[in-house]
Write a structure and sequence with these properties.
The protein is of the alpha+beta class and 117 residues long. It is built from three helices and four strands, in the order αααββββ. Strands 1-2-4-3 form a four-stranded mixed sheet, with helices on one face.
């Protein structure tokens, strides 16, 4: 049987916690929630700012536009909150509004889209 250093360290910490009387709590509800997600399913999104709320409200519509390969929140060059859209075809830009709910759209062209390396 092979024991790795990490296993020894974890066992030592758990033994020390037990001996010290410190309470040990199992998985949190957030972890349980994430454990039940299907493979490939994104984690639950909890928008915390107005720009994130706007993104979530329009996510499906933006992703349905042909040529859109990614969306996120970010900032303009001048520091304003913005919605960031990546497109793989410059023709896709014609189908995008200049702003959504008052937040400017910053469009980046990614020729050929994103690819894992």
């Amino acid at each position: 049987m092979r024991i790795h250093f990490g296993q020894i360290a974890v066992a030592s910490v758990l033994a020390a916690m037990s001996a010290s009387g410190l309470p040990f709590e199992g998985p949190t509800p957030d972890r349980d929630e994430q454990a039940e997600l299907e493979v490939g399913e994104p984690p639950p999104v909890h928008p915390t700012s107005p720009v994130e709320v706007a993104l979530e409200r329009h996510r499906v519509t933006l992703q349905a536009i042909p040529g859109v390969v990614g969306i996120a929140t970010g900032r303009t060059n001048s520091g304003e909150d913005a919605l960031i859209v990546w497109i793989d075809d410059t023709d896709a830009a014609a189908g995008l509004p200049s702003d959504i709910e008052g937040f400017p759209l910053v469009v980046h062209h990614v020729p050929g889209g994103f690819h894992a390396q």
